[in-house]
Amino acid sequence: MAKVICCRDVGVDCDFVVRGETEEEIMKRCAEHAQKEHGMKEIPQELVERVREAIHDE
């Protein structure tokens, strides 16, 4: 079963959605998106934890 998260799940006004088979895959793609689209050079640990908690099965 695929896992999914979108930026809106963590309170960001953005339509980005990512699906993947593993949490690690999703976290990597979310980090890439945050850097490219939101200009985040570093991802705060608090945001990392919010993203991990918001990942859910599709």
Whole-number tally of structural domains: 1
- For the termini, the CA-CA separation is 7 Å
> Main β-sheet, in a few words?
3 strands, antiparallel
Helix content: 40-55%
Please specify the SSE layout and strand pairing.
Blueprint: E1 3-6, E2 17-20, H1 23-38, H2 45-54, E3 56-57
Antiparallel strand pairs: 1-2, 1-3
Overview of the structural elements:
By secondary structure, this protein is α+β, with helices and mostly antiparallel strands. The protein has one domain (3-57). It is built from two helices and three strands; from the N terminus they run ββααβ. It has helices spanning 23-38, 45-54, and strands spanning 3-6, 17-20, 56-57. It has a three-stranded antiparallel β-sheet with strand order 2-1-3, covered by helices on one side. The protein is globular and about 30 Å long. The termini are close together. The mean pLDDT is 95.
Key traits:
2 helices, alpha+beta, three-stranded antiparallel beta sheet, 45% helix
Task: Describe the structure in brief.
This protein has 58 residues and is an alpha+beta fold.
